[in-house]
Amino acid sequence: MDNENTMKSNKTAIILGATGLTGGILLEKLVADDRYSSIKVFTRRHVDLKHDKIEEILVDLFELNSLAKLFTGDEVFCCVGSTQKKTPDEEVYRMVDFGIPATAAKLSKKNNIETFQVISSMGASENSRFFYNRTKGEMEGAVLDQAIRHTYILRPSLIGGNRDESRPFEFAWKKIMKLGDHLLVGKLKKYRSIHPETIADAMIYLANNPYRSGRIESDEIKQIAGRDKN
User: Looking at residue 138, which CATH number applies to its domain?
Assistant: First the structure.
């Protein structure tokens, strides 16, 4: 598959979710990447990193359509997401995990942005009986319906790293997974925990190299990230 981005420099990237764990790491990496001259950050609050490349566009992401004319660039990196604990109201949760990525994909299609990446979740399925997985699966379907030329849906397993907010259960589970990851081999490798930096590295590789569009599972994300290190 051809990817015109391999021939371009001075690109403009759009990030949604730059104040989150993975999005923040991705922002740092794009700032340091000479292929990018501008990074538009659509956010409801300021990011900690300050740099001449960064253009902050303050907006309630539920109202993203109101800034459609500013939603222009070469690539979109959608890193938004919540948890059921953080957003217990299912309607609000769906607005975050389904509504924001789906709207961003529609704006990308409308504004002729040909590369769209979104972080989903392992186990996402439109047919799941679990609300979280079903919402993610429906989001994936809505994104794919836009038929953006280069669409990458990343489906990581449990994401490691340190978050700002307290998540005691998740913290304990990460400790267990860290000890048990080496036991997951063969087809079970995709269930190993993954570091947010690995996800960010994979997203940058996908934006700048030929790769098949579609859903990408956690173990494949790690393989892609490793290519960017070679």
Answer: 3.40.50.720
